[in-house]
Predict the structure of Tetratricopeptide repeat protein.
Amino acid sequence: MAPPEARSASSRTVPARPNLAFRQLRGRLSPGEFAAAVRRSAREIGEQVSCDARYVGRVESGEIRCPNYAYERVFRHMFPGLTLPDMGFVPREAVRGRGARAAAAGAAPLAPDPDHRDTRIQICEESDVLRRAFITGGPAAALGFAALHPVEAAAAAVSAPVPGPRTPPVTRAGAAEAAAVEEAVRHIRLLDDRHGAEGIYRRAAQPLRAAYELLDADVQRRSVSDRLHAGAGELAITVGWLAHDSGRFDDARSHYAEALATARVCGDAALEAHAFCNTAFLARDAGRPREAVRAAQAAQQAAKHLASPRLLSLLALREAGGWAGLADRSGCEQALARAERLFAAGPRDGDPEWMTFYGEAELAGLEAQCWSALGDAERAADHARRAVALQDPHFTRNIALFTAELAGNLAAGGAHEEAAAAGVRVLALLKQVRSARIRTMLDATARRLRAHRDRGAVDDFLARHAASAAAESATGGGVPGAGAGG
């Protein structure tokens, strides 16, 4: 452990210098859209980075003075010929020098260089504390994951020891702990985007408990306290969504209520809007459409001063889903028109970080759900087909979801063979994604198509679906309460 003088030196910060060069590279893309471009570029060269709007903001604010090696390779791939200084970063040797090595060894730096102190804070935030508090990893853990289902292997990255009676309590929380909570949220969301909720939910509940324990720790700065509350609330919503998508509606409702209470305690309007947004979605899926409308309207009230048309657009879609569930076509159409108008206003720097999934594909997919609920299968199929075509490949789970919606809408509209073909595509995606909600939708499509099994494509789908269901049951992949899924 570093001596007190070294620790106190590392806790002092200096104002970061904004990275204007990187901001220019982002151009007219929103932080969320740029983050999606970074993830796509990473996949092109075989890298895996959890880039999101908050990471982009940290780079542009100067908080991240030099990216890690994975991000450096991705940025060099995106901007050929540019060096780190060309992108506005500090050269790597400047943050891997004598001061950083001395701090890592537990000694105070030879000279109290402010840049080196800032570097040590960054290293601490992005490595040791994060892994210690929330995420297990390393070569030994990786070897242990090799025999598991790929979803389980990915989910193990978010597991952490549950604090017990012998675990020393955290007595003081700072920026490093806040950053750890924020990174846990990003990591879990990334896993959900790729693999769906099942296999992740139980493990994700562990860092959530740790995050709420940190709220009882001593925090000296209000800014850190606000980050901890916001991070814990976002983590509660994220874990609630995993429960929601796994068919555990009561658990989801509890987590969303916890996030809403946290938002009210710290006066965080953005967190409150997010909690109400997910509550509305859950109420719709649970067959409580009137509650869905009320929750969506409460979310819009909380978000009205947040300067994010895209957020208001999504909240209008949540309201539209409630109206559709009430068979109120007029109310639904009005909300849909409002959602489209707000979406057309474009992205803003103030868009919440968690909304990186909300693009044209999600807009089309949610509209498809509304038209399906209103009984307009042909219109629903058109929107679902558009949602599949527009979806970013990063969001594997959503591709499976929209394709399952398409299969159901086609089956309802009488296009049985096309529905069966879409169903087969979903079954292929379910080898990578586990979602009770998607499987429930596919089960409904299979039931509708059984009367048409004399057709070759339909019979093939039904056989594959039955084999998949049997395999899922044999491996214990079923989820309690999945039959109630949306």
Remarks:
- The chain has a mean pLDDT of 78.
- The chain has 25 helices and no strands.
